[in-house]
Structures are given as structure tokens and as C-alpha cells.
């Protein structure tokens, strides 16, 4: 059974999708902890599922690195095997990434390497792209530059507003993330172990 620590900043729709999936006893992963960098609405999903949750605010630390170190300690204490950045709207410090990669994954609303960064949906529309999509990837020390694990395509409707396109991407993003976590947990998808000295070893607990 794979143990997950989930990082959020907002409404937590990806977290909710993982919690719903984990409610099935046949799903090979469980959320054991949720962490936010602010008073995220999505923490309510953790509370409803009786999952330990905490806010670790960067402003409470002297530097981004100190915040990352504190967050890393909390994740290690949770016993999580895999860290899932599910809507965390913050670049993780390099030391944090080195501590967990490749056991550190993220979703991004574009077909990487196209349109990295915080405005991927807007950038795809500005480029006049006919399609975009969602990527689940390993987080590395760059910005959306880590190894791609899974992708799904989404056609862009001419004249479609950014918010409507983003919502359609989210509808694809949630099941893609769930499927990726399932495949990692089952061994159907191998993480790039060479990127880290810490290969994934799921805990033998339920």
C-alpha cells in the first residue's frame, strides 16, 4: 500500500479525487497527510476524511529553504512514500526537491514541455494552439521540467474563454492523476530512480 502526502493551496479538487479513489479498498494507495501553504479551502476534504492536515506557511520562516526543510520534516513524520503536489501554487525549494525526487509528482495544465509556468492555459490560448492538455510529471529543480509520467490531450474550442478551458482540463486532470498514482502504487509505472538516491519503496501497511 502506497502512502501519500498531498500538498495543496486551493480548493483541493485533485485531493478530493484521490480521497474518493482511496475509499475503494482495492485502490493501492492511501492519503496519510495533507499540507497547505495557506488557509486552503481544500483542507476541508482532509477533515471530512479524517486525514491529518496542517498549514505550513512560508511567511512563518526566515527563508524559502527553511520553510521547505520544515515541510520536509512534517512529510517524513507522516510516513508518506510519495508526495503529490496537487494544486500547490508555490515553487518548492531545491533542497526539498532533492530530498524527495523522484517520489515527488505534480500535475500541470498543458502538454509539457509546452507552456510551463503559472499561466499555461492562458499561454496556450495566446499561442493560438488547437489543443492543450494535462501532464503528470516528476518535480525537479526546474520549473515544470521534470520527467513526464502521463499526459492527456484536450482540444481547444475556438473562442473558448480561459476559465472554461481550464475547467475542462481539470476534468481530465483528476482521473489522470488518480490513474498515475494507481500505476505507481501497483508497479505498472516506474519512477525514474536514477534521478534520486531515494527509490520508491511502498510501506507494507494498509
From TrEMBL:
Pathway: Purine metabolism; IMP biosynthesis via de novo pathway; N(2)-formyl-N(1)-(5-phospho-D-ribosyl)glycinamide from N(1)-(5-phospho-D-ribosyl)glycinamide (10-formyl THF route): step 1/1. (6R)-10-formyltetrahydrofolate binds at residues 64, 89-92, 106. SUPFAM superfamilies: Formyltransferase. GO terms for molecular function: phosphoribosylglycinamide formyltransferase activity. GO terms for biological process: 'de novo' IMP biosynthetic process. Pfam families: Formyl_trans_N (PF00551). Belongs to the GART family. This is Phosphoribosylglycinamide formyltransferase. It comes from Leucobacter tardus. The gene is purN.
Amino acid at each position: 500500500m502506497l502512502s501519500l502526502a498531498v500538498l495543496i493551496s486551493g480548493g483541493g479538487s485533485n485531493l478530493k479525487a484521490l480521497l474518493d479513489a482511496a475509499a475503494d479498498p482495492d485502490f493501492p494507495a492511501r492519503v496519510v497527510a495533507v499540507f497547505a501553504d495557506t488557509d486552503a479551502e481544500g483542507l476541508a476534504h482532509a477533515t471530512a476524511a479524517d486525514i491529518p492536515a496542517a498549514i505550513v506557511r512560508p511567511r512563518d520562516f526566515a527563508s524559502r529553504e527553511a520553510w521547505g526543510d520544515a515541510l520536509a520534516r512534517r512529510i517524513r513524520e507522516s510516513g508518506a512514500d510519495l508526495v503529490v503536489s496537487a494544486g500547490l501554487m508555490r515553487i518548492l525549494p531545491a533542497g526539498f526537491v532533492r530530498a524527495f525526487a523522484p517520489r515527488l509528482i505534480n500535475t500541470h495544465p498543458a502538454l509539457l514541455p509546452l507552456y510551463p509556468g503559472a499561466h499555461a492555459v492562458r499561454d496556450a490560448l495566446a499561442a493560438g494552439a488547437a489543443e492543450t492538455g494535462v501532464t503528470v510529471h516528476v518535480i525537479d529543480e526546474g520549473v515544470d521540467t521534470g520527467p513526464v509520467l502521463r499526459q492527456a490531450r484536450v482540444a481547444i474550442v475556438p473562442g473558448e474563454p480561459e476559465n472554461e478551458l481550464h475547467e475542462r482540463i481539470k476534468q481530465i486532470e483528476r482521473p489522470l492523476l488518480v490513474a498515475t498514482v494507481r500505476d505507481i502504487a501497483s508497479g505498472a509505472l516506474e519512477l525514474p530512480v536514477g534521478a534520486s538516491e531515494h527509490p520508491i519503496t511502498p510501506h507494507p501497511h494498509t
